[in-house]
Amino acid sequence: MERSKASRSQRAIVVSIACACAVLCALVLFAMGLLSISEFLGPSKGQGRPSDASLMVLFEEHEEKFTQLRDMILSEADILSIGNDNVGPFWLYDRGWVRSDNSDRSLSEQEMLEYVGLETERYCVYLDLLRSVGGYRVTKRTGGLDEGEVGIHIFRAGLAVSGDTKGILYSPAVPMPIVPDTADEASRRKRYSVIRDGWYVAYED
After folding, report:
1. Which domain holds residue 132?
2. What pairs with residue 109 in β-bridges?
């Protein structure tokens, strides 16, 4: 009994130290300008993690918009991610848009869009579509087995160095592992549940 209590106490200490380290790392990155406000603060609307069922209903109600977001990002020649806080290599900070590899210089939104070659009107369409489905970013993968994958990111929580995300995934190939409900497979860092052919609920922690 005493040994069991000691073991639980040791695990609690380890978890506490890990959480403290994650917070400290995030604070350091934020202070250095390497972590955007949205990444540091987590979800902007204070919403809880959506269930698989609610995301499936969301998809059914807005399938045309999810499809439009998929087709738009896949048609971009060089941009892999577009959202309200991230466009390609740029992230939004309180001082403006900053390249991930050059934190010393910040650009206005218009300067950033000109740099990546994205028209203002098209960017506004992305933002309108994302808002209409409750999302904050659309991303795509190129090359290898992930070629053609598109993620529409709906939920995020925690810090960038220790958090989780959930959204809708389009994938030409079946992602693994497929589970009945992503909430029931805590032992797996990434997991997916099927909406319909090619479309999935995606969760990562």
Report:
1. 33-204
2. none
